[in-house]
Amino acid sequence: MTTMLDKPDTELRNLGRGGPLMLPQLWGAVAIASMWVAVLFVSIYGGDFTSVNTGSQSTTIPSAVLVSFFAFLATASVAKRAFRTGDHTG
Protein backbone atom coordinates (compact mmCIF):
# COMPACT_ATOMS: atom_id res chain seq x y z
CA MET A 1 0.00 0.00 0.00
CA THR A 2 1.32 3.44 -0.92
CA THR A 3 0.48 6.67 0.85
CA MET A 4 0.75 9.99 -0.95
CA LEU A 5 0.76 13.40 0.62
CA ASP A 6 -1.91 15.86 -0.41
CA LYS A 7 0.52 18.79 -0.41
CA PRO A 8 4.21 18.45 -1.26
CA ASP A 9 6.73 20.14 0.97
CA THR A 10 6.89 23.44 -0.90
CA GLU A 11 9.51 25.05 1.34
CA LEU A 12 12.18 22.49 0.47
CA ARG A 13 11.09 22.46 -3.16
CA ASN A 14 11.53 26.23 -3.44
CA LEU A 15 15.11 26.07 -2.13
CA GLY A 16 16.37 24.93 -5.52
CA ARG A 17 19.74 23.32 -6.08
CA GLY A 18 21.21 24.18 -2.68
CA GLY A 19 18.54 22.35 -0.73
CA PRO A 20 18.67 22.68 3.03
CA LEU A 21 22.24 24.06 2.87
CA MET A 22 20.86 27.39 1.68
CA LEU A 23 18.78 27.97 4.81
CA PRO A 24 19.91 31.12 6.64
CA GLN A 25 18.99 29.55 9.98
CA LEU A 26 21.58 26.81 9.44
CA TRP A 27 24.40 29.23 8.71
CA GLY A 28 23.35 31.54 11.51
CA ALA A 29 23.53 28.65 13.97
CA VAL A 30 26.95 27.62 12.61
CA ALA A 31 28.25 31.19 12.95
CA ILE A 32 26.98 31.55 16.52
CA ALA A 33 28.35 28.16 17.56
CA SER A 34 31.78 28.94 16.09
CA MET A 35 31.88 32.29 17.93
CA TRP A 36 31.27 30.63 21.27
CA VAL A 37 33.75 27.83 20.53
CA ALA A 38 36.30 30.59 19.91
CA VAL A 39 35.40 32.11 23.30
CA LEU A 40 35.92 28.69 24.88
CA PHE A 41 39.39 28.34 23.38
CA VAL A 42 40.35 31.89 24.34
CA SER A 43 39.23 31.25 27.90
CA ILE A 44 41.30 28.07 28.10
CA TYR A 45 44.44 29.05 26.18
CA GLY A 46 44.31 32.85 26.05
CA GLY A 47 46.30 35.18 28.18
CA ASP A 48 45.25 38.01 30.44
CA PHE A 49 45.14 41.76 29.92
CA THR A 50 47.41 43.31 32.52
CA SER A 51 47.61 47.00 33.35
CA VAL A 52 50.43 48.16 35.57
CA ASN A 53 50.02 51.54 37.25
CA THR A 54 52.61 53.59 39.05
CA GLY A 55 53.83 51.93 42.19
CA SER A 56 52.89 48.34 42.82
CA GLN A 57 49.30 48.42 41.59
CA SER A 58 48.31 46.17 38.72
CA THR A 59 45.01 45.06 37.27
CA THR A 60 44.55 41.72 35.53
CA ILE A 61 41.49 40.93 33.42
CA PRO A 62 41.06 37.56 31.70
CA SER A 63 40.92 38.03 27.93
CA ALA A 64 37.82 35.82 27.75
CA VAL A 65 35.80 38.56 29.45
CA LEU A 66 36.32 41.01 26.60
CA VAL A 67 36.05 38.37 23.88
CA SER A 68 32.78 37.08 25.32
CA PHE A 69 31.36 40.61 25.38
CA PHE A 70 32.02 41.03 21.66
CA ALA A 71 30.77 37.50 20.97
CA PHE A 72 27.53 38.44 22.73
CA LEU A 73 27.12 41.50 20.51
CA ALA A 74 27.86 39.44 17.40
CA THR A 75 25.44 36.71 18.51
CA ALA A 76 22.64 39.24 18.86
CA SER A 77 23.39 40.68 15.43
CA VAL A 78 23.58 37.30 13.67
CA ALA A 79 20.48 36.01 15.44
CA LYS A 80 18.49 39.09 14.44
CA ARG A 81 19.43 38.56 10.80
CA ALA A 82 19.34 34.76 10.50
CA PHE A 83 16.35 33.88 12.66
CA ARG A 84 13.93 36.61 11.69
CA THR A 85 10.48 35.62 10.54
CA GLY A 86 9.17 36.43 7.12
CA ASP A 87 11.04 36.67 3.84
CA HIS A 88 14.64 35.40 4.00
CA THR A 89 15.77 36.43 0.54
CA GLY A 90 17.71 39.50 1.40
What does this structure look like?
By secondary structure, the protein is mostly helical. The protein has a domain of 60 residues. The chain is built from 3 helices and 2 strands; from the N terminus they run ααββα. A two-stranded antiparallel ribbon has the order 1-2. A hairpin with a 5-residue loop joins β1 and β2.
Quickly describe the structure.
The chain has 90 residues and is mostly helical.
User: What pattern of helices and strands is seen along the backbone?
Assistant: HHEEH
- Overall pLDDT level: 82
Low-confidence stretches: none
Strand tally is 2
How many helices does DSSP assign? 3
Secondary structural class:
mainly alpha
Largest sheet: 2 strands, antiparallel
Strand content: 5-15%
Strand order of the largest sheet: 1-2
Distance between the termini: 43 Å
Radius of gyration: 22 Å
State the oligomer: single chain
As a percent range, the share of helical residues equals 40-55%
Question: Outline, from the CA principal axes?
Answer: elongated
Key traits:
2 strands, elongated, single chain, mainly alpha, 90 residues, 51% helix
List the helices and strands and how they pair.
Blueprint: H1 10-13, H2 24-45, E1 48-52, E2 58-62, H3 63-82
Antiparallel strand pairs: 1-2
Helix pairs in contact: 2-3
